[in-house]
Amino acid sequence: MPIGGILELEDGAGSFKVGFKAKDTALAGDVIWELPDADGGTSGQVLMTNSLGKLSWTSQAAGATGATGDTGAAGAAGDTGATGDTGAAGATGSTGDTGNTGNTGNTGNTGNTGNTGSTGSTGVTGTTGTTGTTGTTGTTGTTGSTGAN
Question: Given a cut of 80, is residue 135 above it in pLDDT?
Answer without folding.
Answer: yes
